[in-house]
């Protein structure tokens, strides 16, 4: 529940800043698998996706985030930017 609230708050903040929020919780699928991307934006005509992580970066969290990126790269969004916002610093 906390993650959904955080996604909604971030989307509202992005809208307030003038960003074009296209869709929340965009479900995508490719030959690699399926993923749900919390925020889909258009910035200057380009697609941008925002992943929101509210917990610590455990091994499963890192693996899931990398899988999401792989799914996205195997779609028509191959050139889209994927930004990750986290409550904890993103590991290298």
Please characterize this protein's 3D structure.
By secondary structure, the protein is an alpha+beta fold. The protein has a single domain, classed as 3-Layer(aba) Sandwich (Trna Endonuclease, Chain: A, domain 1), CATH 3.40.1350. The protein is 33% helix and 39% strand. The protein contains two helices and four strands. A four-stranded mixed beta sheet has the order 1-2-3-4. β1 and β2 form a beta hairpin. It is globular, with a radius of gyration of 13 Å. The mean pLDDT is 90.
Summarize the entry for a quick read.
This protein is α+β, with helices and mostly antiparallel strands and 92 residues long. The chain is 33% helix and 39% strand. The model has no long low-confidence stretch (mean pLDDT 90).
CATH fold label: Trna Endonuclease, Chain: A, domain 1
Q: Provide the CATH architecture.
A: 3-Layer(aba) Sandwich
What is the CATH class name?
Answer: Alpha Beta
Helix content: 25-40%
Helical element count?
Answer: 2
Q: What coarse outline follows from CA principal-axis ratios?
A: globular
Q: Radius of gyration in whole Å, from Cα?
A: 13 Å
Q: How many domain modules?
A: 1
Strand-and-helix sequence, N→C?
HEEEHE
User: Which parts are unreliable, with pLDDT below 50 for 5 consecutive residues or more?
Assistant: none
Residue-averaged pLDDT, rounded?
Answer: 90
Order of strands, widest sheet: 1-2-3-4
> End-to-end span in angstroms?
27 Å
Largest sheet: 4 strands, mixed
Proportion of β residues?
Answer: 35-45%
Number of strands: 4
> Which structural class should the secondary elements be placed in?
alpha+beta
